[in-house]
Amino acid sequence: MTQLLVGLIMIIFLALPPVAKIMESVMIIHMHMQMPMLIIAGFLIAKVFQERFPGFFDKWNRNGLPGIMLFIIIVSFWTLPRTMDEALNEQSMEVFKFISLPLLAGIPLRDSWKRLEKLGRNIVVILFTILFFAMGWLYVDAPVQLCNNYLVIDQIILGWGFLTTAICFVIYLGYVFFVDPSKYE
Amino acid sequence: METALNQTFKTKATKLLGVNKQDAKISKTYLFVSFVILLVGGFLGLAQGLNRAGLLELPSWLNYYQILTMHGVFMLLAFTTFFTFGYLYAGLSHELGGLLPKVRKIVWTAFASKIIGAVLVVIPILMNEASVMYTFYPPLKAHPMFYIGLVFFAVGMWLCNVGAFIQVANWRKNNKGKHVPIFSYFATGINVLMFFALIPVAVEVIYLIPWSFGWVKTVNVMVSRTLFWAFGHTLVNIWYLTATSAWYVIAPKLIGGRRWSDTLTRVVIIALVIMNITGGFHHQIIDPGISLPVKMMHVFMSLAIGFPSLMTAFALFAVFEKTARKQGGKGLIGWYKKMPWGDVRFLAVFIGMASFIPAGAGGIAQTTNQLDTVVHNTMWIVGHFHLTLGVTVALTFFGISYWLVPYISGRILTPQINKLGVIQTWIWTIGMIFMSGAMHTAGLFGSPRRTSYTTYGDHATALGWDPYMMCLAIGGTLLIVGIILQVYAVINMMFFAPKGETEFPIAEAEENASPTPYWTERWGIWIIVMLIVVAMAYVVPLTEFIVNGPPGSPGFKTW
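Output (structure tokens, whole complex):
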């Protein structure tokens, strides 16, 4: 219940016009802070859904794959320059952002992560590492504005944000592949 | 299995036989150097204070800015780090069954590197070739030797970090599935933080070296400042975390109590490690070239660090109250009487801790853009860091020395030295109230920092600061008395006090404690989370500063 409350408060706080405005005024904060926070809010809310509808999740997300696919699709969708622009220009897209990221990304992520095997989890991280390197390269190297609402410098910053996060994922993968936890645990 | 048995035997042997002689030598050397530096740095501080009050004319061969630089380098970089490692390695040796031979070698190599570094840093300052203050902001340009010295010093610190990692990893291999003992857990957190905080400043120093040699003509000032504060702020929190380790682990034992929740303690450490480096940005809150929304975001990131500190305040006062009530303390306030106020080991630590209430509040005020604009370049800031480092950290370190020095020296704390310590603590506290209070107030009235004595042509406003500067000088004089007493006490406990056994006071976990979850041990994950947070925080200003970078600045020697 506490998690549900925290999650809902997070969504309401992030949706407050001054908060949304300030976060969306900086491209990287829009994509790398507001959006992940919405996913985290959904992640927290997920527990109530899992408890109320265990049958639904067991039936449709038994091995975690459908959920993680949904998560990947939603997150990939929101990494596109066009979708960010639309969220800023169209009220309906902004509403969709606030619904899709918690409900269609946050909740399936929590439900799927525990159901996935270690290999599956690592594949997801590898996938996002590749995606982040690609998006980083795109945003850093694009000679023109990709979003009408943001300057070229904003997209270069976002590009470096993608690249540095991808490097962190690589470090994580290195940690998972080279450190044997059975030596310590 | 055999190694595990050996390790258990070693652990028990160390606990029964007391301190390991070879390890004690390491801690003793580090602490001795630390307190010698404190003494020299203290006299430099006194000279500064008296000069600012207009009471002392400095000789032509030693100017205010040389002293200011040396005081900063000695107190902020050398005193604290030598003490921290002396203290942490004593604890690691005690808890983890003695240091490994290779770790000892690493720590001695680190010591040599740091001493070489310190000498290389001090020589150009004495030659008046590096009066760039301890922040060494470009475009102030020091002699190359100054920056090379800093590299040696940083390498020394890194080696100490690596030594601690090897020691802890070895213990974990031999004690599979167990939680790293709490003091060593603190040591791990502190070393992780230091290891990563040194990276940005090392990058800065490495590109300042060719610039100081003149091989590169210009330097990007804003990038340098940002890289410096990613380290500078974290360094502050490394001292704070070191002091916190004594509050959580040692203080409860000294008052006859038990530790607060083991899980909460470890969560506080993890939270401080993850969120700290990004806090550096609030030191640049009035720097140009950073957009307001970004500054706004950083206010939240900085304030987030306050959260674990509030958890700490709650936990510690809860421990005090619980223990005092068990010992018969009554009433809303009355239980305070049951605390061992006559024991310097507690008194100094308690005052250090209590002073963090105003010090932390001041820090939160400075994190706010509008409030910081009023005080940023004034004596207020100097007052603030004398309250945080000079009281919270220094008094906690002093309190630690009254059991740590006898412990590593195989001696005891005599009632006379305890009494001297209590007097020293009060002198120090009163001195700092005078000095830091005067600095805060004069700062509010506009008295600038980083400036030698001047009346600005007898301007009325500047003359209005004089009474506060006089208070500053009085405080400074009391503080030097405090330092002399403290160093005397340390030397006495190290070499002359009666021989005997002193305990390394680590408090037990609370009764009926719920088990600590194992995820607290997964440092690999926490480090990656920290790196992501750091990447997110610094990518915005650094990319802007580099992509939209100005032509850069040549070096200046303004002194």
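The domain at 22-508+515-544 of chain B is CATH 1.20.210.10 (Cytochrome C Oxidase; Chain A).
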